[in-house]
Structure formats: C-alpha cells, structure tokens
User: Fold this.
Amino acid sequence: MWRSSSQTKGRYYSTIQVDIPPKPWFTNLTFGKATTSTLIRMRLGHASIPLHLARLNLLPSDICECGNDVGDFNHIFFACPRYDRSAFFSSLLYIKIPFPTSISVLLSNININVYRILAEDERVKTFKYWPYNDNNKCNIRNMAEAGFYSVATGDNDVDAVKCFLCGKELDGWEPEDDPWAEHKSHAAYCAFVQLNKREDDLLLPEYLSIILQYMKNEIRNNQEIATQLIDKKAKEVWRKIHKLRK
Ligand SMILES: [Zn+2]
Ligand SMILES: [Zn+2]
Assistant:
C-alpha cells in the first residue's frame, strides 16, 4: 500500500476523488474576496444563523426566533414569517428558477450569472474605449467601483456608461469628475448609491438586498418594454379597424 502510494505522490486529490472538480467553482469569477467568502459561507451554512450559532454553542437552540422551525437558510429565505419575501419569490420566478427550490440550488453553479452581473471586476472588463487613464479621477477602476459599466459602441460614445443597478446612463465625463459624486447627483434614488460602499465592504444582507434590487429593476424594465409593445400593437389594430369602418 505505502510502496505504491509513494510512486503517485503529489498527484491531484481530484484524480483519486473524481467527484471533486480540480478547480473550485469560483475560479472563473472575479469577485472581491469578501463577496466570494460570503458566497462560500452561505453555501456551507457557516453564517450568523441560528443553526450554525447553536452548533458553536453560541445559542441554546437552533430553532429560529419565530419558533416554527430550525433556523437554517432555507427557513429564513423560504418560510420564516418574520420576513416579507414576495419580491424575492417574484424575482426567482422571473429568472425562471423552478419551484420548489432551496438556497443550495440557488447558489449552485447553474445560477452563477446572477452573481456575475454584480461583480466590480466584470464591470472593469467592459471599458474598452475609455478615454481617461489611471491618473484621472474618473479612471476605469473608480467608475466600476461606483457601479458603472461601459455601454460604448464606438468612437461617438466612448464615455457612455450605465449603472448596473439603477440603469442610469451618463456621458460627457470630465477627467476630474468623481464617479461616486456624479452617480449620487444624477441618481440619488439608486440603492447602490444609498449604501455608499465598495463591493468588498458590503455585508451579507446588503449584498442580498442588491441582488434583489437588481432583479426587481430587471422585472420593471421588461414590463415597460412589454407595455410599449402591447400599446404599439393596440394602436395598429385600432388603425385597421378605423380604416375598415370608413
Ligand atoms: Zn423563523
Ligand atoms: Zn445606480
């Protein structure tokens, strides 16, 4: 046994344990350290929830404050009467998550795109035509940190950007413009502006609230597009009827 193992010393654990991928699930993501560790803690259940706190003997029981059930993530997100989750549920339906579902399903690799759109480093990658350099206040890193990604299509709109959360579009940037200040003055209602924190400084509930807000905004935008399409169709039909009557 030992003789044979010495010959294969140093090989990847994954080659003997095939169920474990050689690289972790977050390899291709460029989240900040805090975000990645938040997601890992949620996936493992190592968080400030009754179930985990009781395991560490910090709470006498793992039952949720509501008294209905064990306080794990699934209870908190899907059943606990202490929270209103209507927006959360409609968001899940919107991104076509089949019910019943659970936190482990939501945090599995299938839904990784939900997180990708929120990542600062992913926004950095969108700035291909940006006219300002690192010495300018509105450099690419500061723009991405303030929630902006580039929507430039070519030479005519090199400095067109959009907020990932509120959708506000801005252009006409000056080198000394402060991205956070501009975001605030043009879209003070933006939930990201109101938190006023870098991605790595967000706490878990804040991070979740941003995910939810993003989903809600997406739903609203799609509803607006749908309403416009229906209006247009209705007008066409009305015109046809009008012609027939003449
Ligand atoms: Zn509860
Ligand atoms: Zn915004």
